[in-house]
Amino acid sequence: MLCAALVFAVAQLPAPASGEGELPLALAEDWTRAADRYWLGEGLWGNRLQDWRIRDEALECVGPAGLRWRTAIAAGAWSRADEPRRLEVTVGAGSDELEPGAWAGFLVGAGGAGPEDGVHPLHGLLVQGTVGRGFGWFAGVSASGQLAIERLDSPQAVARLDARAVDGRPTPLPADGLRLGLDLEPDGEGGHRLTLEARDPESGEVLQRVAAVAAPADGDLPDVGLRGQVGLVADPGPSGKGPGAAFRFDDLRIVGREGAVEPRQELSPIVSALYTISGDRLRLTLQMMPLPETHAGGPTSAVLSILEDGSLALVSIEEVLPESWTASFDIDDWDSSKSQTLVATVFVPFRMREGVRTIAGSTADPYTTYIDVPRQPAPDAPLEIALLNCCHQVSHDLVGGWGASGGVDRGDWRTGSWFPHADLVANLAAHEPDLYAFVGDQVYEGASPTGVDRQNLELDYLYKWLIWCLAFRDLTRTRPTIVLPDDHDVYQGNLWGEGGIVATQQQAGGYQHPAEFVAVVEATQTSHLPDTAHPGGVIAQGLPARYGELVWGCASIAILEDRKFKSGCLDERMPETDTDRPDHWASPPEDRALLDPPGLQLLGEAQEAFLARWAEADRGARMKVAVSQSPFAGMATHHGAALERLGADLDSNGWPRSGRDRAVALLRRAGAVHLAGDQHLATLVQHGIEAPGDAVFDFTGPSIANFYPRAWWPSLAASGRPAELPQPADYTGEFTDGLGNLVTVHAAANPMEDAALRELAGGELSPMALFRGMPGYGLVRLDPGAREVTFECWPRFAGPGGRQYPGWPVTVRVAENGSQERAPD
């Protein structure tokens, strides 16, 4: 029941010991020079972003009273379990109204595994909210002054803490706080002795001491949950009242012998970089942590330079926008004939004190990151595009809700935390693609890893977006990257954008959240894209339109927005559905024309006009590709945890059919293939307009991670997973989807049996809850010489030399991609 608000300290390289037997310092933070801000420093990560801040030279937890989430957050991955460790911090009450059952202290062993177990050093970074296996051990003090050590592996453990907090005569925390020290000593038999003491911060007098033994248990790692990340935790208590998790921390020190601490994982204020190059123009966006203002009262700035022969040449200086915490650079005359390295630097203001002189008059600390920009592939050389979408960070069993039995909080953090997706990142990087396309749902508003905080909507989004940035930053800083927001990115379950209007009801069309919030999403995810092709650049509410063209190597790529202009399905001319949802049909009407009244839009008139111009234009690229959020057909017949039968889905881009037909016809005129995501179900289809297979190929890539499965089982009329799964002959070939669209299905990554997944992987798989969702990544190989396109669909556990999902790869000739192929140059 420990608070929703948690902090991860990411361990730094240990310093040399100053004396024999002394433990070297791994992390030290006292925040003396730190200005007030939400970025906690290079060694700390706050869960959630809005729940932790630096204020008045101390770390403060401000998590709300109603948000316990039964959790704590930790920092620093310990790679060895047989070495002693020590943690120290001064903790005090941030309010005199804390309830006696509030707690603050340390968390050790978050994530239940370390790098020596084969997991990423940041595996436990998001641990919070649900106690369970792999959550770790808590050692701390209650607001009533009671010390406790407890393994947080069950709700019963939290109940014991609640009882202990009010056991005996309450002694509130002193005004100056307590100095907590936690020692972890291996006992030589696979266990540990944990000793927690509280001292007077001024005199050093020991006021209390408690101890516990972590002994080996069946089924556990030898260190009984102590292997993992370490950090701080604050909990507002069980009542849901009071000021929240109002604790203050100061002078944090984490020490351990060399080898007991994982090498430093910096959490720089520059979290990631996104860039594109089209022609001779480079556009780049740096994503920052929320930073303090300068001492002059304005936003801080970011500096971009080119590294040439060991020296830096200034390119540009741009302000960091305080709404999105981004700095965007627009560079003309970029020389894409050679690879280059960019160096980005941001200056973080520190706290100024009267009478204190700074070195050379400096009032800010510089932080730097490097961005590798490859040379542009030759126009006659093959080009490889990586296709990704739909990124959940944790299993839903960790937080209850969708897919969790009875909505009960339960879970195992050792297998339920999928962040930072290290297996997928490593396997994908090994292919060395030329361009990445992330086409939607980079962020999920609910339970990924936390629910929606409507009181702090923009900070809540930034918290989840920054998690995505941390996971994929090593990819996006080395290759051009397309990013397109989808419905969940703007905190909607579905999106019929209606040109950017305000939504009175989701299915009626428009955006449900304030335009300022949507603008933050657009700035963080799309401000690095090439110039918009939309007349005037903006739509209703002043929101940006971002569709346009990118030319890279042999490819001219149309970047489309298939949600932003789509008509809402609550149109008075539409017949009432036969379900409790206005967008779902169990059995759509036989006359599908009833579902397509005149005037409905999919891409919108202006975007269709752009697509028509693009289809005819010649920018010197030999191949054409379109990317958007979702495929132009209803390619799921079963959906959700129960795999319920779905007759027609008006959220799919098979609706409205007239708009779909216009879009597909324009792509056919261009001879372009279409790439998309959204469905949690990888498919490769060839569209038909007048006849089966007379239009373009459409590849929907698999999700990165999901817990909402879908299937294309057109032969099954019933809901539920059948005892015997359909075979490819049952779901490939010529079909009409539930909206009347013609599709020729070449492959579909439908749910598989566990044994078949293990056979595909060539061994055991864990966690199965992740792999049953058929996650992975797509690769699209363009060969301008052979005039061929190869579609590949990879499980996330597979890299080069591994096996793809059944049915892939598929190679098609451009001449097969509809009947109106553009002649080769």
From TrEMBL:
Domain of life: Bacteria
Domain PhoD-like phosphatase metallophosphatase: 424-687
Protein name (database record): PhoD-like phosphatase
Organism in which the protein naturally occurs: Engelhardtia mirabilis
